[in-house]
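Agenda item 2: 4VN complex prediction
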Amino acid sequence: TVSKLTAAAHYAPKQIITNDDLSKIMDTSDEWISSRTGIKARHISVDENTSDLAAQVAEQLLDQTDYTAEMIDFIIVATITPDGNMPSTATLVQSKIGATNAFAFDLTAACSGFVYALSMADKLIASGAYQKGLVIGAEVLSKVLDWSDRSTSVLFGDGAGGVLIEAVSPNVTSDEQHPLILSEQLKSDGNRGMSLTSSLTSPSSPFSKSGLVDDAFLKMDGRAIFDFAVRDVPKNMLESLEKAAIPAEDVDYFLLHQANSRILDKMARKVKADRAKFLQNMQHYGNTSAASIPILLSESVAAGTIKLDGSQTIVLTGFGGGLTWGTLVVKI
Ligand SMILES: O=C(O)C1CCN(c2ccc(-c3cc(CO)ccc3Cl)cn2)CC1
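Presented output:
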């Protein structure tokens, strides 16, 4: 059974914090942040947790269709900032929207989370076992940032985005029956995992060694991650395009994880594609990890740039903590 994307939606907390706002509480400047990252502002939650952002997206996805919450078979939330480990953020979303017939689970793959989750959802539908699902990337990164560390706290923001994915009914004419995913390459490298960490915990009990470190804050070796992104990710994109037998110039748009605009410049050059096809919105959101690709996708659909009518070839590429990275070449 082939799947298709029926709707896209996004939601961010209403409070907007600009680079100038940050320069009032830490030693940074709009000039530094803008020139080094492309970020101008980010949304920071006042009192909404990750499941609240994700539930807003879920409600919008249902509103765009004539489906009720009871018709949803599964909910996957990709996040590294869950409300908590238990219950999962996905089951909290299920409760908030009343998706009583769905099974729900969180997926942790940092900034590749949405790409991993969309690939998994496609397989759930391809198996024939399930027909309709919500795939949401959602983060409240503001709660894991070290706000005394200007090198990381200026880079990230809060937000959520997602899609409704469903099985294409068998009686649709065969020429409309094209796979959603033309090719994919999901990768990870745990050897380099400690260069980007958050919410680390360690043994702690009357019977454990005392004084083990707890590293709750997000920590990043910026140089190492920047080099990883520039070196490993374009290779992954080119391999995925080769597997799909699609030349880079035939791709309509590239929707990459919104970490840094200079990285997009370098990646466009490495895959020899028009930089204008590398859509971007980190200027308004900062880096929202698993939410960045679905927010960008949703805004592009709302703007009519991406049409969700099966006519466009799009590259979705995530990369980040784990380390994880991955590309889906999709026809949406
Ligand atoms: O120019 C400078 O001095 C600094 C140099 C370091 N920078 C970085 C480095 C890495 C990332 C990043 C983060 C994630 C995590 O989601 C994923 C992917 C990437 Cl590529 C973002 N910015 C900021 C500007």
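Discussion summary: Residues 36-37, 111, 155, 196, 222, 225-226, 229, 259-260, 263, 287, 289, 319-320 surround 4VN (CB under 6 Å).
Owner for follow-up: CH.
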